[in-house]
Write a structure and sequence with these properties.
Helix content is 19%, strand content 25%. By secondary structure, the protein is α/β, with parallel strands linked by helices. Strands 4-5-6-7-9-8 form a 6-stranded mixed sheet, with no helix packed on it. The longest helix has 16 residues. The two termini are 23 Å apart.
Length: 262
């Protein structure tokens, strides 16, 4: 694992938007892009502690995509040798998603990976709601190991894009009240289809880019528009804090390549 390097790595994917078989917008195959992440892990020598996928696993109206997603996530877990932890987003079908690992009983849960605690939340309705927030407060009442990572689909803030400025978690203030002053190291989210970093109440928030398509940032004040760019994030937990690196699956050809000399 990446412990040998002095940092802990979490591979953060979001917004896969897998379909029942056809291409999304005649261009995007979410399952194939998950396979390309497998290839990246092998080629780049990434050794994460876990892989986290923060929602919109399937495109709305494609409940038959979940068995395909389950198999794809199992392959990804085998390729990386670590668990794949998935949260639901607003496009996801809560009942059809129960075939996924960890979702049979509940869509919010705690997953322990060595001395890291992952709290996976369900914001598929756009909010967490009082029962889930009460459960979260109870979980975070005690600390675990070297800390907790919270994963959910809707970020507790808005996007800088005018059309997505109010698209964050509706009960964000209550969520921040619940995590403030706890052992939460970072909050991982998605939904915006563009990367965004923030610090709220002293807690780093990392909104991951989308594996399906990237929001065009200059589409206009009354429009959302996507272009075909698949991205994900590498989140590194350091003793001093957190770093996030956004990675594109479609990389330009290098203009040079040389061995690193020390």
């Amino acid at each position: 694992m990446s412990r040998a390097t002095g940092r802990l790595t979490v591979l953060h994917l979001s917004d896969v938007h897998a379909t029942s078989g056809e291409l999304l917008y005649d261009a995007v195959d979410g399952i194939e892009r998950l396979r390309r992440v497998e290839t990246y892990i092998r080629d780049a020598g990434i050794t994460p502690e876990a892989i986290v996928v923060t929602g919109d696993l399937a495109q709305r109206g494609h409940p038959d995509a979940y068995p395909r997603l389950r198999d794809a996530f199992d392959r990804l877990a085998d390729a990386a040798g670590v668990p794949v932890l998935t949260a639901l987003g607003n496009h996801d079908h809560p009942e059809a998603a129960r075939v996924l690992r960890g979702h049979r009983e509940s869509h919010h849960r705690v997953e322990i990976v060595d001395d890291l605690r992952f709290v996976v939340l369900d914001s598929s309705s756009g909010e967490l709601g009082r029962p889930q927030l009460d459960w979260l407060r109870l979980v975070l009442r005690s600390s675990h190991g070297i800390g907790t990572i919270v994963a959910l689909h809707h970020a507790p803030l808005g996007s800088p894009l005018p059309t997505l400025a109010k698209a964050g978690l509706r009960d964000s203030a209550a969520f921040l009240d619940a995590v403030e002053g706890t052992d939460v190291r970072v909050v991982l989210a998605g939904h915006f289809h563009h990367p965004l970093s923030a610090t709220l109440r002293g807690i780093p928030i990392s909104v991951g880019p989308s594996l399906a398509y990237h929001q065009v940032m200059d589409a206009g004040p009354d429009r959302v528009s996507g272009h075909d760019l698949a991205m994900f994030s590498l989140v590194h937990l350091l003793p001093e804090g957190v770093t996030v690196t956004n990675v594109g699956l479609d990389s330009p050809a290098p203009i040079f390549s040389s061995l690193l000399t020390r």
